[in-house]
Design a protein that fits this description.
By secondary structure, the protein is mostly helical. The chain contains 7 helices and no strands. The two termini are 13 Å apart.
């Protein structure tokens, strides 16, 4: 589905690159089963693996199917989540790369903040929920909105399309954020949600 959010790990591209990085590292860097796995990853990164991978991606050519700069960006984020040492030179390098990365602005902002506040030796966990968690959160918000439908005045107006509650077709309504689900928006929401749920079930 491409993106399910605007944060650092919330895209198929990011997860695909993370799979490749993990393969190159020959150690799990993203999905940890326990603290021992985190420590194992941190120790390998601190023992020279981080430098080796950065050098590998810096030397790799950029093409339409691969973005080594994005891999460095994600690699450093993964290293921070283990508490591995990230020196000043590498931080400065990643900071320069950020404008070139094809990722949402919120993800770029997350990295800029992390580069500024990160302390080597202390795990830094990025707020970047996976697809399933994002779906659950969205479903809970929708349920909360539906519960408030009966509280919406009949003369309420959508600030987005300027329609009134009474002008909407049956089954459509103004949400608690004052934006009604017009026909196009309603169709896209149903289609995308169904697609995401089917993909999660298959996984």
């Amino acid at each position: 589905m491409g993106y399910w959010g605007n944060k650092i790990f919330q895209s198929d591209t990011a997860l695909d690159f993370i799979d490749e990085i993990t393969g190159d590292a020959d150690v799990e860097l993203y999905m940890f089963d326990n603290d021992a796995a985190v420590t194992a990853a941190k120790d390998k990164l601190d023992a020279g693996l981080l430098d080796v991978l950065v050098a590998k991606y810096e030397a790799a050519p950029l093409d339409m199917w691969d973005d080594p700069n994005h891999k460095i960006f994600l690699l450093v984020a993964l290293a921070m989540q283990t508490g591995a040492a990230v020196n000043a030179d590498l931080r400065a390098s990643v900071k320069e790369l950020i404008p070139t990365i094809a990722t949402p602005n919120q993800a770029k902002k997350q990295m800029r903040v992390a580069l500024r506040v990160y302390k080597s030796g202390e795990r830094y966990i990025f707020d970047s929920p996976g697809l399933y968690d994002t779906m659950i959160t969205s479903a809970n918000k929708q349920a909360s909105t539906a519960a408030k439908e009966e509280d919406i005045p009949a003369d309420a107006i959508c600030t987005y399309c300027l329609k009134k509650e009474t002008e909407l077709k049956p089954g459509n309504y103004l949400t608690c954020c004052s934006q009604c689900r017009c026909d196009e928006g309603r169709f896209r929401y149903i289609f995308i949600s169904s697609w995401a749920i089917s993909r999660a079930v298959q996984a």
